[in-house]
Design goal:
elongated, 179 residues, 1 helix, 3% helix
Length: 179
């Protein structure tokens, strides 16, 4: 019996694969390896340069004059980064049932990212010190042709720098070329 209108693709992968990528992120470029460590789990690591925007407000209280002062600061520069993480993909079969492509690890994921950011040695006016960022993340990766991917991820973040802990949000928007 012919099923010309059946859109379920049975030839789509239901497992992740290892990939080497060059990624163009919203504010940077990285070289990355995504290594398969389980049927639907990968670890990834990479290095590159990210543009980082630092914004903050310092509040100072002078007990002699009983005055509070606010100092706002901001900074945008490119910094070298090294990062690693883990991704657990979870909706391959649902995407296949809907007729969607799952190659190039085209599925949703939950994960954890760890990133080291290092200020450049030749700049002395930077607001950013070396820091370690930890971020749980939800995201998705989609296939772009045979040799590309698009990735979007978002989550809360903690940054550790100069003995302090900072909280915020993190995101990732990246177009990657598979090598």
């Amino acid at each position: 019996m012919a099923k010309a209108q059946d859109t379920v693709r049975t030839d789509q992968p239901t497992e992740v694969k290892s990939m080497n990528k060059i990624s163009l992120n919203l504010f940077g470029i990285t070289a990355e390896r995504e290594q398969k460590v389980g049927r639907i789990t990968t670890v990834n690591g990479g290095l590159g340069v990210f543009g980082t925007y630092v914004y903050g407000t310092a509040i100072h209280y002078n007990s002699v004059t009983n005055q509070i002062t606010f100092k706002k600061y901001n900074d945008f520069k490119f910094y070298p980064v090294v990062y690693g993480g883990i991704k657990h993909y979870y909706n391959f079969k649902q995407r296949i049932k809907k007729g969607k492509k799952t190659s190039n690890n085209g599925a949703n994921y939950v994960g954890l990212d760890v990133m080291g950011v290092f200020p450049t040695l030749f700049e002395d006016d930077t607001l950013l010190s070396s820091q370690l960022n930890i971020a749980p993340r939800w995201g998705f990766q989609r296939r772009l042709g045979n040799k590309g991917t698009f990735e979007f991820g978002i989550g809360p973040a903690m940054a550790f720098a100069q003995g302090n802990t900072y909280y915020g949000a993190t995101g990732k928007i990246a177009f990657s070329l598979l090598l």
